[in-house]
Amino acid sequence: MTITKKKITSLAIVLMLIIGIFAAMPTAAAVSDEISLIYAKPLVGSDSGYYAFGYVEVLNLGLTKEVTVHYDLNDGEGWQEVAAEYYAPTWGNYEAWVFETPTVGGGERFPVADIEFAIEYTVNGNTYWDNNSGNNYSVHDSLAINPVFAFGTGKVARGFVEASSSVAVQIELVNLDYNKDVRIRYSTDDWATYSEVSASYYATCAYNTYVEIWRAYLPANVSYEYAISYTVNGETYWDNNFGANYSYEIPIV
Predict the structure, then answer these.
(1) For each of the chain's 253 residues, which pLDDT tens digit applies?
(2) Same domain flag for 49 and 143
(3) Cα separation of 18 and 209, whole Å?
(4) Are strands 65-72 and 50-59 parallel, antiparallel or unpaired?
(5) Number of domains comprising the chain
(6) Are 70 and 25 in contact (CB under 8 A)?
(7) 6 and 235 in contact (C-beta within 8 Å)?
(8) I need a surface site. Which of 12, 128, 186, 218 has the fewest CB within 10 A?
(9) How far apart are CA 230 and CA 181, in angstroms?
């Protein structure tokens, strides 16, 4: 079963210079829907350091284009950049691009992620930005806090998955209203039929109190595909891995 991702029209975004940040970067023209962050999250690398991983949505204005993420790991090295790569179509003439930064805190006993970033899109000689209306985006993580995601047009995203007697799926979402319904829909027969389980509120994120953590528990004795839904204010938002859905396979013993 493929569930269509819901698109939220973003506000016009203007690159604003911030004292001490992007001092060497040019001001960008005002934009509307050309580029927007979908969501980003902190992940743990092979060296036990943290890095930012995320998805960007761009309007396909030409075959040749560049999507660049400008980031600061807050490790004393200042602002740097990394290229994003094409990932998948989303809806209409929009595309998802994926990025990840280098790790920070690798090899440290108690690493901390405090990664700030903004996104640049260059196509047909024009440059567009999403820098969160001049505030930049940021993700956070450490042993002392739950991971803190950054959200743009996406309003819900899968976090970690942990399997034992059941499969625990952590979900992060933007708190758009107190009354909300968060579920996981899963199918064991290639979507001929499906079942749903409700998620429960777990915590509010440190650093960003507009982001909440929810958890749902799925069976661990069968293989299936699944997607996450978040219904609030009469709207339903999905994280279905850009139409590919997520999957759980029974471990081979």
Answers:
(1) 544 434 333 333 333 333 333 333 333 333 358 999 999 999 998 888 899 999 999 999 999 999 999 999 988 899 999 999 999 999 999 999 999 999 998 888 778 889 999 999 999 999 999 999 999 999 999 888 889 999 999 999 999 899 889 999 999 999 999 999 999 999 999 999 999 999 999 999 988 889 999 999 999 999 999 999 999 999 999 999 999 999 999 987 6
(2) yes
(3) 24
(4) unpaired
(5) 2
(6) yes
(7) yes
(8) 12
(9) 6
